[in-house]
Design goal:
heterodimer, A: mainly beta, 5-stranded mixed β-sheet, 1 helix, B: alpha/beta, 3-stranded parallel β-sheet, globular
Amino acid sequence: MQIQLNGKNRNIPDHSNAQDLVELLELTGKRLAIEVNREIVPRTIYAQHRLYEGDQIEIVHAIGGG
Amino acid sequence: MSENANLRDDSFVVAGTTYHSRLLVGSGKYKDLDETRQATEASGAEIITVAIRRTNIGQKPGEPNLLDVVPPSQYTILPNTAGCYTAEDAVRTCRLARELLDGHKLVKLEVLGDEKTLYPDVTATLEAADILVKEGFDVMVYTSDDPILAKRLEDIGCCAVMPLAAPIGSGLGIQNKYNLRTIIENASVPILVDAGVGTASDAAIAMELGCDGVLMNTAIAGAQNPVLMASAMKKAIEAGREAFLAGRIPRKRYASASSPLDGTFF
């Protein structure tokens, strides 16, 4: 299925959840935050948060800034 | 208590946490993470700002991360809302930061109004501050040097108010001494100068005015030698603070001899 990840279209396996996506992207264990359709998905429930076709997903982290 | 002991005890409190360093630094614009780490250490800062941005998808696993060189266990991480031009984007950024930092409530709110000046959009800043305070955030807020607005942001419940000294990244120094003085006099929360410092003397001037601290990024990261400038800024902040506490002499138009006039033999 197709999702929009950080502003770009991307195909991921059907029935994926947020945890699957993190693993697919090799981001496991990284300090990040995920928003799906503008709602924050707490990291404690990644595995329970099912993703759907067309979901708009943002994965963010901390970088240098003033 | 000796005067030295007084100075050692000199600290300020933001959102219930006591800080001894009155220099707050940003982590942007460094050439690499090693320089970020070295300059941050040299600054002696305890509060470090970070930006929240999209993760680079496809980044090599194991690539170093900012929070590895400025670890939250060692520093107070202050996520900012830099780049936000609406209250909505700023609030969204703070919510993501809170999740990212395990429920950490301290944020630096800035809502910008214009790309050329990076001046704050003060109405949007008020709106965002109100929402964030109600959601339980501890809001340190970047604002213009307007004393009325600074008081309004304090009344909303912001835990620190951070007026600019000059536009962000401009290095123009303290352009608004009298406004800053007024803001400081009126305040019952910490007032930190945020933005506009160019060199060490600017930081000292801000502290001599009675600010609780100074937040800077470009003045250090953009210097020819950022690590040395970080060290200079640390000293300038301390010197300016000591001078403020010591109480400067009044300005006089004409001279006043330093050596006694009695006992001259000529």
